[in-house]
Amino acid sequence: MENKLFIHNTLTRKKELFEPINPPFAGLYVCGPTVYGDPHLGHARPAITFDVVFRYLLHLGYKVRYVRNITDVGHLVADLDDGEDKIAKKAQVEQLEPMEIAQYYADRYFIFMDALNVKRPSIEPRASGHMIEQILMVSKILDAGYAYEVNGSVYFDVEKYNITHEYGKLSGRVLDDLMTNTRTLEGQDEKRHPSDFALWKKAQPEHIMRWPSPWSEGFPGWHLECSAMSTKYLGDYFDIHGGGMDLLFPHHESEIAQCQAAIGHESVKYWLHNNMITINGQKMGKSLGNFITLDEFFTGTHASLHQAYSPMTIRFFILQAHYRSTLDFSNEALQAAEKGLKKLMTGYETLVKLIATEKLSSPTPLPQGEGRIGEIKDACYAAMNDDFNSPIVIANLFEGVRIINSLADKKESISAGDLEMLKEIFTTFLFDILGLKNEKANDQRPLLDGLMQLVLSIRQKSRETKDWGTSDQIRDVLQKLHIIVKDGKEGSSWSAE
Ligand code: ZN
Q: How many whole angstroms from 138 Cα to the centroid of ligand 1?
């Protein structure tokens, strides 16, 4: 079947046919985390959204290079931010090197993304490892005349850029509005225009993370790293740039301006943005007390959670909404997601068994089964091709479950070919593309149970024959593996710590 993937381009504000610049290659860049705190719900949505984009492009046969950066330079002196270097602040409080903080939280990010079954990108470049590229880009922008240096800091000249180009084209903001809405911050007096943003900042004496540059010992502006690293790994003009909608302005708007100024043309063909998550209708924020980390979700330890929610429940919940819609978290909605996911996984387990028995029976297709399964498959592809419409895919999978249950109850029958297709739909869409896993099924457990039974029976026999060498050896090895054996009247049981 020929696939025609349409994706919504934030820049043109319409759905466009996805035509990669250099097929069969497809380049995907997504803004990754700033690593100074434990990953929270806000990290999960873009990671899962673009994981599905990545998975679907791979499924369609593209050779995808997926780049997601790690912001490990504490340089959030961003012009609309509160001007605080968050990594350095945390390092000071915890008496650690800033890089220890960055490493610790990058590791935490990987652990939680793995739990959410988010595939690792092809490249995960770190801002701190790309100083040369960033400094080079600042030089190019200066050479092109779109930046100016003041006291060792370099600023992008937004006003000048806006004469020939449109600063605000992505976010729809107009420069005049920006002027009146921009807060005054320390160091802003160095700027010619309130909307100008830092490309390089001279470090104050107390600033720990600093690098040498032609202008001063300092650090790059936040927007710069994504422009430098995306074009380094994906080329001057690449296919998709993604991120959360909160990054539209000023981050992505400034990325467009930086690339235009440094390279002479824009670098991104399709801009994709996932919408935000609210909790009980409220924006997430530390001050609001609804800032829930993924750890708290998985363990149920946050005061506002009625229970723990598994990684797949979180993933399924996020995919139940289209990525461009807002998504509101509540206990009720999460519990409904948990139920829905269980229904899909139970349906799949039933389906696998149906195939096993079907093979023994007559493969004669029965008329009432004809057509419907093919329609479900087509509908799943049509939904994915319509700007990654995961909720429609899920609705079709539920229709599949309805058919499976009806087959299991022997209310309907189906041809062997249709059954195979139904199985293929579930493995392709539920597991490969939506990236969901059956958390109940642990493939290793039966094997482990069998082996432990064997070990314990050898141990029992060695004790009966007073072969203490063998029984001690078994005890020591199990201890090292943190396996606890409990001996009772009815025999021995075991558990892993
Ligand atoms: Zn970015």
A: 16
Report pLDDT digits (tens) over 89-98.
778 888 888 8
Q: Please indicate, yes or no, whether residues 468 and 419 belong to a single structural domain of this protein.
A: no
CB-based burial of residue 212 (10 Å sphere; 0-12 exposed, 13-18 middle, 19+ buried)?
exposed
Distance in Å, CA 453 to ligand 1 centroid? 52
Q: Which helix (H) or strand (E) holds 422?
A: helix 416-425
Tell me how far the alpha carbon of residue 230 lies from the centroid of ligand 1, in angstroms: 9
Which band of pLDDT confidence, cut at 50, 70 and 90, is reported for residue 281?
A: confident
CA–CA separation, 74 vs 82, rounded Å?
13
Q: Note down the domain range covering 118.
A: 15-274
Same-domain check for residues 481 and 371: no
What is the per-residue pLDDT for 293?
94
Dihedral sign, CA of 94, 100, 104, 109?
Answer: positive
Q: Which range is least confidently modeled, 108-112, 264-268, 303-307?
A: 303-307
Expressed in angstroms and rounded, the spacing between residue 249 Cα and the centre of ligand 1 is 11
- The rounded Å distance from CA 47 to ligand 1 centre is 13
pLDDT at residue 180, rounded to an integer: 55
The two three-digit tokens of residue 316, written as one number: 């399924």
Helix (H, G, I), strand (E, B) or coil at 304: coil
The answer to whether residue 384 is domain-embedded is: yes
Tell me what the pLDDT averaged over the chain comes to: 89
Residue 12, pLDDT above cutoff 70: yes
Cis omega (within 30 of 0) on the bond before 214? no
Six token digits for residue 142: 């200066």
Give the distance (Å) from ligand 1 centre to CA of residue 223: 6
CATH number at residue 348: 1.10.730
Distance 85 CA to ligand 1 centre (A): 17
> Which two tokens mark 475?
């005890």
Distance (angstroms) between ligand 1 centre and the Cα of 350 equals 44
User: How remote is the CA of residue 71 from the centroid of ligand 1, in Å?
Assistant: 8
Q: Are 456 and 492 in contact (CB under 8 A)?
A: yes
| Ligand 1 center from residue 337 Cα (angstroms) | 31
The residue from 424, 440, 456 where one domain ends is 440
